[in-house]
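Because showing beats explaining, we let one protein speak, sequence and C-alpha coordinates together, and leave readers to judge.
___
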Amino acid sequence: MRKRVVVTGLGIISPVGTGIEQFWTALTNGVSGIRRITRFDAANFSTQIAGEVVDFD
Protein backbone atom coordinates (compact mmCIF):
# COMPACT_ATOMS: atom_id res chain seq x y z
CA MET A 1 0.00 0.00 0.00
CA ARG A 2 1.34 3.42 -0.96
CA LYS A 3 0.51 6.40 1.26
CA ARG A 4 0.66 10.02 0.20
CA VAL A 5 1.60 13.07 2.24
CA VAL A 6 0.38 16.57 1.44
CA VAL A 7 1.94 19.66 3.01
CA THR A 8 -0.70 22.38 3.18
CA GLY A 9 1.20 25.04 5.09
CA LEU A 10 4.27 25.86 7.07
CA GLY A 11 4.77 27.77 10.29
CA ILE A 12 7.25 28.06 13.11
CA ILE A 13 7.44 29.38 16.64
CA SER A 14 11.02 29.43 17.93
CA PRO A 15 13.36 31.35 20.24
CA VAL A 16 14.72 33.31 17.24
CA GLY A 17 11.47 34.19 15.54
CA THR A 18 7.80 33.60 15.02
CA GLY A 19 6.99 32.93 11.40
CA ILE A 20 9.03 31.55 8.53
CA GLU A 21 10.61 34.84 7.39
CA GLN A 22 11.69 35.99 10.85
CA PHE A 23 13.04 32.54 11.73
CA TRP A 24 14.92 32.12 8.43
CA THR A 25 16.48 35.60 8.66
CA ALA A 26 17.71 34.91 12.20
CA LEU A 27 18.97 31.46 11.24
CA THR A 28 20.91 32.67 8.19
CA ASN A 29 22.40 35.56 10.20
CA GLY A 30 23.65 33.23 12.94
CA VAL A 31 21.34 34.59 15.64
CA SER A 32 21.18 32.40 18.75
CA GLY A 33 17.98 32.05 20.74
CA ILE A 34 19.80 30.67 23.78
CA ARG A 35 19.99 33.11 26.69
CA ARG A 36 19.22 33.51 30.39
CA ILE A 37 15.69 32.55 31.39
CA THR A 38 13.56 35.64 32.01
CA ARG A 39 9.95 34.41 32.04
CA PHE A 40 10.21 32.83 35.50
CA ASP A 41 12.68 32.52 38.38
CA ALA A 42 15.02 29.68 37.42
CA ALA A 43 17.36 30.12 40.39
CA ASN A 44 16.47 26.70 41.85
CA PHE A 45 17.10 24.85 38.59
CA SER A 46 20.45 23.37 37.57
CA THR A 47 20.57 25.71 34.57
CA GLN A 48 19.35 29.23 34.02
CA ILE A 49 19.75 29.30 30.24
CA ALA A 50 17.29 28.08 27.63
CA GLY A 51 15.74 28.74 24.25
CA GLU A 52 12.74 30.76 25.43
CA VAL A 53 10.06 31.87 23.01
CA VAL A 54 9.66 35.46 24.19
CA ASP A 55 7.58 37.12 21.45
CA PHE A 56 4.66 34.69 21.51
CA ASP A 57 1.90 34.57 24.08
Observations:
- The longest strand covers residues 13-14.
